[in-house]
Amino acid sequence: MKDLEKIVALAKRRGFVFPGSEIYGGFAGTYDWGPLGTELRLNVVNEWTRAMKEHYNMAFLDSSIFTAAKVWEASGHVSGFSDPMVVCNKCHTKFRADHLLEAIGVVADEKMTEPQINILFDEYRAKLQCPSCGKKDFGKVVAKNLMATATLGKFNEEDQDVYLRAETAQGIFINYKNVLDSGFFSVPFGIAQVGKAFRNEISPRQFLFRKREFEQMEMQYFVPPKEAVAAYEEWKVERMSFYDRLGIKKEKLRWKQHENLVFYAKDAWDIQYEYPFGWNELEGVHYRGDYDLSQHQKFSGVDMTYFNEKTKERYIPHVIETSTGVDRTILMLLSDAYDEDEMNGEKRVVLKFKPKIAPVKVAVFPLLKNKPELVAKAREVFKLVRGSVDGMVMFDDNGNIGKRYRRQDEIGTPYCLTIDFDTLNDDTVTVRDRDTGKQERIKINELPEFLKNKIK
Predict the structure, then answer these.
(1) Could you tell me if 292 and 365 lie in one domain?
(2) For position 151, what pLDDT does the model report?
């Protein structure tokens, strides 16, 4: 199993991910994307967007982070969106009760009520130890609502609570009718969205896996009830195949069916990835039925039905949801790509990203930084490559060639170009492959096409 601590250290050292508010001691459950993390995030989002755009009947949306409180009442988040919290009586650290139980091999049903989780917790209380101070002294388990609140638009005590959205899905549901009425789409069709969501997590953990501020890539597919089961199976196949586009090892992915469905779900499967801390959810592919649209019709009074002109049927469409996190996807990519091997007798750390996903596609080196003619030629090649490669190109003249190779290997750059004295004579450069270490001479004027094919 790969060491998560090594991945976290590399992510910070090389500018993928920084702890949030670090110079002020940090802020739990938040992280900032560094230069390379920002580029990697953009590659992930773009690839997901391309996959969704391959459907001719796919609309895209960018809904507001702030929404009316009624939205979350209708969705059930205000009354039923909570985690079981317990506090250590000695050090006063807050924990999720189900996580403490999991640590000793006891799995709590996520649908348990507050009294039920307390009964289970009390049964194993004597075995439960505080991860912070080591004591076995916990208080009562209470249900803690995960909705993140804000004061925007709330000026008096009697004003309604204001929430930051807990998921991007509700922004899609409340705009379903608007998209349909625009006249460009008809059932079946999908609405896709990439956006931030916020949860007041009790105990954020496992690096990017569980955060208080995170980004979702979500799609809701609206389909006639009679076609929903078949469409659901098609989307399951399609979503698993997406991870091949990212270059993820097949043996690290699996399907996991929900044993205890939430009350509105018809069926629910998760795509799981084997993270350094074990198998866990990467993406949910769920058949939600007509619950969401029916709820918003009930609470808003707006008719959410669809009339099929051909069949003369009127119905509320059923919904198939695919939902994955940008943060979890990037943690998966870092975990999957991370490797420690030996090349030319030297040990190295390398991120073996698929070339089109790598944050830096190409690095350009002058053999020596103190030779103006080599630097000038390298700048010329850098300008040519940067204008022809779809993605980030880096110019690197710091240290000897070996150190530069190791530095680029560590951030996953698939191809390095070295400009040497032969370049000045024959207009060829050395192209070095990250994974094999193989080097070949390529004409400068052939580089754009050569690299384009390699990266594609």
Answers:
(1) no
(2) 80
